[in-house]
User: What shape does this take?
Amino acid sequence: MPMAAYVAAMVLGATGTALGIAGMLGRAWSVEIDWLVPLGGLHLTMDRFAGLFVALGGAASLPTSIYATGYVGRERRGAVAYVVFVAAMLVVPLAANMMTFALAWELMSLASYLLVMRQGTPSSAHAGWVYAVMTHAGLACLLTGMLLLGAWTGSSGFAEWTTAAPALDVPARSAVWALLALGFLAKAGTMPLHVWLPLAHPAAPSHVSALMSGVMIKLGLYGLLRASFEWLGPAPSWWGTTLLLVGAASAVGGVLYALTDRDLKRLLAYSSIENVGIIVIGIGGALAFRAADADTLALLSLTAALYHVVNHGAFKSLLFMAAGSVVHATGTRDLEALGGLVKRMPWTAAAFFVGAASIAALPPLNGFVSEWLTFQALLQNVQLPVAGLNLVFTLAIAALALTGGLAVACFVRAYGIGFLALARSGAAESAHEVALTMRVAMMMAAVTCVVLGVGASVVVRPLIDVAATLVPAAAPIAIGPGLTLQVSNGFASLSTAAVTVALAGAIAVPLGVLTVVGARVRPRRYETWACGRLLQTARMEYTATAFANPFTRVFDFFYRPVRQVEIEAHPESRFFVSRMAYANPTRFIVDEWIYRPLHRAMRATARGAGAIQSGSANAYLAYVLAVLLLLLAFA
Amino acid sequence: MIADVVVALLNVLTVAAGAPLLVGALRTLKARLVGRRGASPWQPYRDLRKLFGKTPVVSTTTSWVFRATPYVLLSTMIVAALAAPVLSSRPPLAFAGIVLLMYLFLVGTFFLTLSGLDAGSAFGGMGSSREVAVAALAEPTVILAVLALSLRASTTNLGGVVEGLAADPLLAVNPVHLMAFVAFFIVMLAETGRIPVDNPSTHLELTMIHEAMILEYSGRHLALVEWAASMKLLLFLTLLANLFFPWGVPAVLSPMPLLIGTLVLTAKLAVLTVAVAVLETAMAKLRLFRVPELLAGSFALALLSVTAVFLLR
Assistant: This one.
């Protein structure tokens, strides 16, 4: 029974990929069934832009569904919710009116909510609760915005919004944009609306986390793009600058939390916040360029953002699947209890390595291409004549560069502590390689990462076409000789193919020379040197916490680290320690500055409102009468 | 076609063969400055030959990452030598910009820090942690400092920056340019592990960064790692020389200009080497947790420089 569900999800994935790619290449179609859904009917439309996201959803859910067959084993729960989740994600980009969109969106949220809650532990219940609150607060913003827009334009169809919106005045459009952006960014997980993400991703089963991170949060960005470029007409420049700043904050904040987290899956969740930040920087850049009438640059920036959407879908689902394999084999997500897996789980370790190198944006892999494109788009802000705007762009560039360096540190830590050296616990010591289906799924995603990087010049063309449906302009990237991407007539260029060949050659030639000269004598194997101690144990290894320590100290204004040391000494002398406890819990400034005061305010309001709740039916009847009289008086 | 290959080989040979001499000269100079005789500047070549002849010892704890790292590291430096404007402003990988170059160095850092962790000793982990922290904090400064240059040359292509700036006669007295130069100089010291950030000639556990990370390497592996480190120093000094003082860098690939270009580059590198040697002799190493303040300072300089470009145009 569960098997049939996952096979159905595979079929859905394959169909979605095919339909989506056909849509991206220009095969548009539309379906209208008026009686199926109230208030406007079911209305689906495929265009190039929707095609990209359908293809992303399909291409990501194919390997994750294959992976799921090995991952869940005999577990029956969650299979149906998973299929519904996949189907809903494929429908969201196709929705062409408000009601269809809201239904698909809510179905996607509910199915993922059930999957987050599946474990039934107190921590997953908490994660599910926070997720439900955030996602529905987001939905409330979305619906308010959409209803306002629907009322002002007199229609609930997206196409009608696009034609009617430019006639509305700017404050009205900006108000709707703020509401929609809040709702979509909450789903995308940008700071400070990210709080649900690091809780929900680790709680869900790994194939679901892979999809939530690889696809679902991207649908938030999908909505943001539709709203900013289509539904709400020409954007004033503050939309773009806001997104640039939000993206920069998310990118740096996300990677800083990822850098210190001990939980492998939560680390990946924080890294998703970082990558969404990078994408939002690209979107913000596109909006800002568009507002300044630099349409070609806007198209470049948007292409970079979409490229990163695709890339993050590939490497983040790969990383979540590899992390899931680790959890499957060892039963723990704690980095301090892993280690040594590169020898016991070589396939999983290789998959994680490819994912880590891609997400750390190492050339010639895919993460590098999209970050490079984002850099090139942002760097050209010099063409805009407004100094204030230039400074915002410069900050975004600096944030992007800092994020790049910190992401390398973060994934060196994740791979180096989690997979290399000695096993840090019995569980890691007795780990075994995972089932064939899971390995196949991971390899599919890993190959995708390499292809998306080395084949950049092939991938970028359809992406420009897709982006051009939102920002019609002349193509900013030409393909030169040697598969070179030439950005903006010689401003910058890159050929990942040439870099790959050069790197491979530069490894092969020295190896060959050393072999020919006969200098490659077999290395002697011996134990690690460490000051003449008798044996080496995992206790002597550098820990994940220690590895992150320089960053905790440098960015202490952000982490606000606390050290709690409790020492219980013997009553006779304080030098005889009987018990010692050490903890360094993470504090979150977003929680402390925004959510706690908000929570307190809500509780205070509720307590205040409690004063009128006496519990007596007579009093309630009197309230009803009073309200009725008030309404009559005003009517 | 053949000319291209010859130029590519020349670029790589200059960097690969010149790098040990640069390190040797730097050591000799430092020794003379403190009144010692010091070893000959050719000593690094002898060290490399000795190391290549020895049997490497590889820890049983390690994986493929440890053994692949020296080759990957060398290969990133070779590709960087192909991408940087070393002998002329038209390097063989002509498309390269600073972003590609910095991320190539990060590939090396990625592998090197992983192999520091791979042996499972506390030294390696400590070195890796510090190295990657310094690299991550230096990254934005490098990109912003070079951005300040490419804004004025209106290309991010490194060769284009050299050619664009060489046309500006007032470059050397431009305060914006000097700020970017100082910022880049500081991160150069950090990236290549020189005093005041790291001390290349210490094995004291409290202070070492790079040396702690490569403690497990021996034989030809160590030779490759050391060689790559010296190539990185040469590449950074070359970038400093050719990007910030872009005079005398030939734009045509014929023998005579290339010869002159090589001589001019040698002269510029000699000046920079003396500067580094004097600085290293005159200064003490900073405490590890003071290093971020230095890097933050250089970042502020680079940011100021970029801001000034925008405000002064």
In short: The radius of gyration of chain B is 19 Å. Chain B has a mean pLDDT of 88. Chain B is about 70% helix and 0% strand.
